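From the shared-data thread, chain only:
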Amino acid sequence: MSDKVSVLVAGSWGTALASVLAANHREVYLWTRNPDQAAEINSSHTNHHYLPGITLPANIIATTDLENAVTGSSAVVIVAPSSGMRQVARSLKPFWKEDMICVHATKGFESETMKRMSTVISEELGCPEGQVVVLSGPSHAEEVVRRCPTTVVVASNDDKRAVAAQELFINNDFRVYTNRDLVGVELAGALKNIIALGAGLSDGLGFGDNAKAALLTRGLAEISRVGVELGANPLTFAGLAGVGDLVVTATSQHSRNWRAGSLLGQGKPLAEVLDSMGMVVEGIRTTEAAYAISLKLGVQMPITDQIYHVLFKERSPRRAVEALMGRDRKTEMEAISQETWEQWHS
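Structure, as tokens:
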């Protein structure tokens, strides 16, 4: 296997994963469309806009030439925003080789089609979806790049490709598990961003820890419910890609989704919130896609429903919380067992 690995693109998460690969003595080519960003990474070994105050390994080579970035690589790691994934995969196609390992680390849906990222990539590269590997789990870029202990999961229907991805990334600071549930890992990574928005919104309203704990618990049930309907293993949602990623994204100020929700809870308009973030907030698009999926499948997603109406229908955050608290009475086991486990075993 070649030591060359390509990472597309040079945002905060792409840069952080490039730093992990570089620490593993890979020859890392980091592709960006921005010539100034490439020049900064190569000359100063920084990516100040996305990861201020961080010095990057010298064996990360930034380039705006996609062919140069990809040719001769053993693996390509795609970390494009969900809105740009199809275009990046389409641009990759002329330089793609079937023996390359394709890993993606994007948590979202294609909003126009409601498709998962592995589906989008496989359509554009012309490879089976099961050959794509997804990397997910509780992992803030700001901590990964500082080599804080982090544990993630890589999932694929192809065991050999999952193990190959594991070997690319694993080291003493970055522990990697494998998982065969590609669908569940992708869905968990995308859908938890909605609940993180809700957690930030709750904090912005000043509702405290009790409200947030309930939101995360019921949010996990909601994620599991739609995940099982789409073919995922419910155990995945109890793992790193599920509860692990949900906790870190919904409780940390590193989280863009939490910060966006907090600002919304404080009364800021959505347009102002997005302008202030400076980076993509995947949970916004994911909420729109998940709301459509819930209607299509006939699956109840009450938290998603309320956040959708806050984001796109001008419902006040306080009214949304009141609507959730005023829902029909249920037993907890009815909410958990019948909605998830019994459905999966039937």
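Residues 337-342 have pLDDT under 50 and may be disordered.
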